[in-house]
Write a structure and sequence with these properties.
1232 residues, single chain
């Protein structure tokens, strides 16, 4: 045993004895075998067997799934026209998938929950020690009972014994004890008994690996979807007044008082009786079912205690100001109907007349507001019906997944609108509208005043009414729901049922979520008009809003959404009328569904009318008194924002729509000398129009290139073939000045266009335009900007969820989309890859055929990986291999010809990355994971779509691309930031590229870490995290060549193990030196079992008694080993005992490592001199010259405690001992 400890123990101790016999110390990484060379020269047998799966990767390892994007609505949200914004929405999601990745700890961790699931149904193990304890307890109970009846027995011990013997029950006879049994039969019987009720997964009986150390854990990003905040449902149940004489219409909207912003669009409802609705039937003969909605769903992204639900009521226009029209509702009561019978009849007749004549026009009536915080906290300031609150309260909805929201103050924590007790409210007090205080600014003042105890509004005489509404958290998937575009949201079982409308949210602050569905809505808010200087009868002013496709009146488009109990779309909308007011204010919201492709002829036309409330002869109902307009497109941009427009007295002249009203047109008369008298605001909620000048310019220039539409006017610049390259490069450089929320909203389209410019360099005037460098720089800076500003959207690896989901679900190679197959899954053929049968004659340690076989120095070895061709390439096409006429020259896509040409994205990314400037390289290295994942997905798509998966791995990618990859690894100087990203990248490359080349990259990166990191603990932690991520590969066992036969040590001098093998404890049982060498971390072992050797070498270095290992490093190393062994035990691919035996051989050096470090394992935390002495005793007390073994070592091996040592309560010693036990248990199959 002493000899085993000396020979196969920690090489750090052995090197003191062996000296120069250790050719490569564990602190150095050995040169791995040429994996592809070995696999091609050692093909598996023709017959299938359990070991075959250990010899090669499965033929169906890589698959490409075409996943159809899930649509939330029954009708696809697409316009009639095709637009570039629909690219990502209409395509299938091309998901690159590794079929066996579910066996990796990357996505299927071996956690406590999984451990408990595996332990269900296990037979309880009862051992002799447990039975002895039970027997002793029974004996004690019997003795107590016996002492009670002692007086009934004869006195004296002899008599008592006779009495007990006569009354005792005889034991069962055991005839087998008297039979003669051969020792061999007894051994066989015992062996069979030991195999009964055994648990195959030994590590499954122990606690799960430490999840805190699971650095390889990588969650799949969420599918991109439209943003939705906390959702509340509001149902309008009934609206009753003391008198019912005319129809009343209502609207709901949310306002944030603190932000002074309207945070939702309007929801219009109609609770009138059929009798009242009949008064307006001539004006709305066709009523769409979508306008009959009485319930709505609001979304609130940023909950706040300052949010109010504002309810506004309107009535049909009639003669008189608002106060006069509200008077009957304030003084008359239903109980006094007999008293005011004649007056009521007169009012009804007047209302019927007004509905017939002025039914198209409305006027403000009353308003009120509900403080939502009172609903959430169940403290209402409004009158609440007791009967309603008792009988109509319902149970809370199922608890939903909480979303992360930004918090502005501590008070917002109680504003949880996603989970509160539903409430039915009866609102009884309304405030009459005031004609001169209708603006949003006045409303914010009223709402702020409502929260004060001495509110001015409370002293006003209210309009008595009863509005009953129900407020509750919205269900997860409500039935019969319409989107803001009036599309049917799934599920929608019956289209004839009264729907619920989803109301579009206008978030109080930025929301960083990309567009995933088509949306193109326009909101027009007329605010005020001033006709005080206008002569004549201009008092009852209504503004007609139209969306025009041209200048002819017939070109008004039916894109304006209807309100309530009307048609779904209209060609015009009117603002409410303020009686006898020449300078009215408006609160109207006009919602439009605009076309995707807007031209210079599309514009908004505003026509101002004077409405005659009294019927007069020869006086029309509507008299136009002014005109103005807004051209919607200007220099390719949608015009939005606030406008102060002059108003023309006369109709605009021909071709007016391409000019703005600010232009002084000849022969036109303007109100108030061409001053801006009409204020209007235009907002857009669009996935087509960015509304950002930097993004608009970039997308416009890309469009000009794609359509080859030269010349093109862009503001004051004429874009021609001569300046388009400079303008496009400048626009890409200016993207860093765009608003971040806009960049995020159009992230998918922006990335797709940048990738398009990299993959398809355009040809202008017969010349190739190199835009790859500018596009790469723009992409790098954009990615870095998103990371820095959205730190809350990152996982534990620092990956931004928005970017990660884009790569996973939305990225696709331009113009290389595969033809849709008959099935959803595209996978490789099941034939065995020909690369496994290909014979090569290459150097054992090199995957590049152009490089020398043996490096003279470490620097030369590193340069050998990079390649002999070098990487010094300039940015221009002159010295590039891509230049026309050079080695990699290819025809570029000519927009005027049928030639189709493209570059490979992964090659271009690697090239631009290598030759990038310092600023861009630093930005890209900061977020290297993004470009690594982008390259991996491009590589996988390229291999699959070009049918290269069956090619030998060395022939899949060109040498120059391989050189660029090596250069990226060698020039990675941000080690702490890059460590995990590079590890995941190399993990992915093992499934795609030459695996021997990837092994050499791992070796070179180890050298980089060692050279650049000064802190030993930091160095070891980086290497442990790196190797743990790489070893989490789903084919980790196959990558270690578990079936390879270790050759004898190649050292010219015999090693310590070879010189002492005759006296080894193993040599008495095993004479084969090849088997003995499997227990040591020799150079051949570490070469052929490269990843396993790296892991065990790190473990040995960390557990070295005289090393500088600290507790957290011990934890890292042992946890990595434990996790791997647990994954092997739980892997259904490795259930065969023969397979498990070969896997266990990858960890056989663990046994001498554990034996050598028993003192270190006994107490990691004890740094006292006693522990140091005990650690040294195991080395110093042994005499290397004789065959004796010291007492301390013997006691340690035998399991006896060392003198003055204390038991460690931590579980690491138990874990590593269990790992050793598992290795011995599984490896025993080979020697049975």
């Amino acid at each position: 045993r002493k000899q085993v400890s000396r020979e196969y123990g920690s090489p750090q101790l052995s090197k003191k004895r062996a000296g120069a016999h250790q050719p490569v110390p564990l602190t150095e990484v050995v040169e791995p075998v040429d994996y592809e060379e070995y696999v091609s020269s050692h093909p598996p047998g023709a017959e299938p067997g359990p070991l075959r799966q250990l010899l090669e990767f499965p033929s169906d390892d890589l698959e490409l799934l075409l996943q159809e994007r899930e649509c939330a609505t029954i009708e696809p949200p697409v316009p009639e026209e095709e637009t570039s914004c629909l690219e990502s929405g209409k395509k299938h999601a091309a998901l690159w998938s590794l079929r066996y990745q579910r066996y990796s700890t990357t996505q299927t961790p071996h956690n406590s929950e999984r451990q408990r699931e595996k332990q269900k149904g296990l037979v309880k193990q009862t051992f002799e020690l447990d039975e002895a304890a039970i027997d002793r307890q029974d004996e004690q109970d019997d003795s107590k009972r016996h002492s009670v009846s002692l007086d009934d027995t004869p006195r004296g011990s002899w008599a008592s014994s006779i009495f007990d013997l006569k009354n005792s029950t005889p034991d069962a006879l055991l005839p087998s004890v008297l039979e003669r049994t051969a020792a061999e039969d007894m051994d066989c019987r015992n062996a069979e008994n030991r195999q009964q009720c055994r648990h195959a997964d030994l590590l499954g009986l122990y606690p799960a690996p430490d999840e805190d150390e699971a650095v390889e854990r990588c969650t799949i990003p969420e599918v991109p979807k439209e943003h939705s905040g906390q959702r509340i449902m509001v149902k309008c149940l009934s609206l009753r007044f003391e008198i019912e004489i005319e129809p009343i219409f209502g609207s709901l909207a949310l306002y944030d008082v603190r932000e002074k912003k309207k945070i939702s669009e309007d929801f219009h409802f109609d609770l009138n009786s059929d009798q009242m609705k009949s008064l307006l039937r001539p004006h709305s003969p066709h009523v769409a079912i979508s306008t009959l909605a009485r319930s709505t769903i609001f979304s609130i992204t940023y909950p706040s205690p300052d949010i109010f639900l504002v309810i506004k009521l309107e009535k049909v226009l009639q003669q008189g100001d608002i106060g006069e029209c509200c008077e009957p509702y304030m003084v008359m009561k239903e109980s006094d109907s007999t008293k005011h019978k004649e007056k009521l009849e007169k009012l009804r007749a007047q209302a019927e007349q007004m509905c017939t004549r002025l039914g198209r026009f409305r006027m403000p009536f009353a308003w009120t507001a509900i403080h939502l915080l009172n609903i959430v906290s169940s403290v209402g300031g409004l009158d609440r019906s007791d009967s309603d609150s008792d009988t109509e309260r319902k149970g809370t909805w199922n608890e939903r997944k909480k979303k992360g929201f930004e918090r502005m103050s501590v008070g917002e924590d109680m504003c949880n609108f996603a989970n509160f007790r539903p409430a039915t409210l009866t609102v009884t007090n309304f405030f009459k509208q005031e004609g001169d205080r209708l603006s949003d600014e006045d409303l914010y003042k009223f709402l702020a005043d409502m929260r004060r105890p001495s509110s001015v509004l409370r002293r006003l005489r209210p309009v008595t009414a009863q509005l009953k509404i129900d407020i509750s958290p919205a269900p997860e998937a409500p039935h019969y729901c319409l989107s803001p575009e009036l599309l049917h949201v799934k599920p929608y079982p019956d289209p004839r049922v009264r729907p619920t409308k989803e109301v579009l949210e206008f978030p109080a602050r930025y929301v960083y979520t990309p567009h995933t569905t088509y949306r193109n809505l326009l909101y027009v808010y007329p605010q005020s008009v001033n006709f005080s200087s206008r002569q004549g009868s201009v008092r009852n002013i209504a503004v007609k809003v139209q969306f025009m496709a041209g200048e002819d009146p017939s070109q008004a488009m039916p894109v304006i959404f209807g309100k309530s109990s009307c048609a779904e779309f209209y060609k015009e909308a009117y603002t409410p009328v303020i009686y006898h007011n020449k300078s009215p204010e408006f609160y109207e919201e006009v919602k439009m569904k605009i076309p995707a492709n807007l031209t210079d002829n599309h514009h908004l036309l505003f026509t101002f009318y004077h409405i005659s409330c009294q019927p007069k002869q020869n006086t029309p109902l509507e008299t136009p008194v002014g005109y103005t307009w807004i051209p919607l497109m200007q220099h390719g941009r949608l015009r939005t924002g606030s406008f102060s427009l002059p108003v023309s007295v006369e109709k605009p002249p021909p071709s007016y729509s391409v000019l703005t009203p600010d232009v002084q047109l000849p022969g036109m008369k303007w109100v108030d000398n061409h001053k801006g008298v009409f204020n209007v605001e235009v907002k857009a909620a669009s996935s087509v129009h960015t509304q950002d000048p930097h993004l608009d310019k970039f997308f416009t220039l890309v469009y000009v290139l794609e359509e080859y539409s030269f010349p093109f006017r862009l503001k004051d610049v004429i874009i021609t073939e001569a300046n388009v390259e400079a303008e496009l490069k400048a626009s890409m450089g200016a993207l860093k000045g765009a608003l971040l929320d806009t960049c995020v909203r159009f992230l998918h389209q922006l990335m797709s266009k940048l990738i398009l410019l990299i993959v398809h360099p355009p040809v202008i005037a017969g010349q190739i335009v190199n835009l790859g460098r500018a596009a790469f720089e723009a992409m790098a800076l954009l990615v870095n900007q998103i990371h820095k500003n959205l730190e809350g959207n990152q996982d534990h690896h620092g990956r931004n969820s928005l970017l990660s989901s884009y790569i996973h679900y939305c990225f696709h190679l331009p113009t290389t989309e595969p033809v849709s197959p008959p099935y959803a899954t595209l996978s490789r053929a099941t034939a065995r890859p020909s690369s496994l049968l290909l014979s090569r004659s290459k150097s054992l340690s090199n995957s590049n055929p152009d490089l020398a076989s043996t490096p003279a120095t470490p620097d030369e070895e590193v340069q050998r990986i990079i390649g002999s061709k070098g990487i010094d390439r300039s940015h221009s096409w002159v010295n590039s291999a891509y230049a026309p006429g050079c080695s990699r020259a290819v025809l570029r896509r000519n927009l005027n010809s049928s030639c189709e040409l493209k570059q490979l994205l992964h090659e271009e990314l690697a090239l631009q990355w290598v030759v990038s400037t310092s600023t861009v390289r630093e930005a890209s290295l900061q977020q290297a994971w993004f470009f690594f994942q982008l390259m991996v997905k491009s590589m996988s798509h390229h291999l699959f779509l070009s049918s290269r998966l069956d090619m030998p791995r060395r022939q899949r990618f060109p040498d120059r691309f391989v050189d660029d990859i090596a250069a990226l690894v060698m020039h990675a100087y941000l080690l702490e930031r890059l460590n995990s990203s590079l590890a995941f990248f190399l993990n992915d490359l093992l499934s795609l590229m030459d695996r021997g080349f990837v092994f050499n990259l791992i070796r070179s990166y180890y050298k980089q870490v060692r050279a650049q990191t000064q802190n030993p603990s930091s160095l070891t932690a980086l290497r442990m995290d790196f190797i743990r991520i790489v070893c989490s590969h789903e084919h980790y066992v196959t990558l270690n060549l578990p079936c390879a036969t270790l050759s004898p040590p190649a050292s010219p001098s015999p090693s310590t193990s070879s010189t002492t093998s005759q006296s080894s404890a193993f040599s008495c049982h095993v004479q084969d030196q090849g088997v003995v060498s499997m227990f040591e971390l020799s150079v051949p072992f570490r070469q052929q079992h490269f990843l396993s050797g790296l892991l065990l070498a790190e473990l040995s270095l960390i557990l070295e008694p005289d090393g500088e290992g600290v507790f957290f490093l011990h934890k890292k190393a042992i946890s990595a080993l434990h996790s791997l062994l647990c994954s092997h035990d739980a892997d259904p691919r490795y259930t065969d005992p023969q397979v498990r035996s070969h896997i266990a051989q990858l960890y056989l050096p663990l046994i001498p490592i554990v034996m050598e470090t028993l003192a270190q394992l006994h107490d990691f935390t004890d740094t006292s001199p006693q522990r140091v002495r005990h650690a040294s005793v195991l080395v110093d007390d042994s005499d290397p010259d004789n065959g004796t073994i010291s007492q301390s070592v013997a006691m340690a091996i035998a399991g006896s405690p060392l003198p003055n040592s204390k038991a460690n309560p931590f579980t690491l010693p138990s874990v590593v001992s269990t790992c050793s036990l598992t290795t011995v248990n599984n490896s025993w199959y080979e020697y049975e």
